[in-house]
Amino acid sequence: MAKSQLPDAILVDKYVAGDENALAILINRHQSKIYGYIYSKVSDRDVTEDIFQETFFKVIHTLKSKKYYNEEGKFLSWVLRIASNLIIDKYRNDKKMPLNRDTDELLIFSRITDDSLNIERKLIKNQVEIDIKTIIEKLPHDQKEVIMMRYFLDMSFKEIADFTGVSVNTTLGRMRYAITNMRKVIEKNKIYLPS
User: pTM here?
Assistant: First the structure.
């Protein structure tokens, strides 16, 4: 069997054993899906390129350092999970997180999006974004992850379940707990979120 037709798991083993060409085959095999996924979430070619490259730096580092990798042949899912985490980190570290998703699921995320905001409203909007980031950071990791993927990456609950390796029902449960916890923090600290 030609090396290019080998399953992902065997190519990963070959790469870990020192066959650099095995990784080139894996990248070539999956690059369009990975690149397309990243671009669908960030809609910016330069940012997509950066995250794509950083994703494979992490893949190489993890495999070369022989850190725990046991994806049972699900190499693509593993790489997409790495990319997803990098996208979340990018949004988390950006000063301007995209908080303009309108949904009935959670009015907390209903934001002012008018470009002609006056100075006072812009200041309020910036403070609200800071407050929401602070609240999200206080959530348990699994709840924070669902919020970030759902509201900032616009992922479906099915996509989130696939990436986190849990059922859709568990994902929905985590979202409910996250919303409840956020509302409690908002009420307790009397945080005002204008709609």
Answer: 0.53
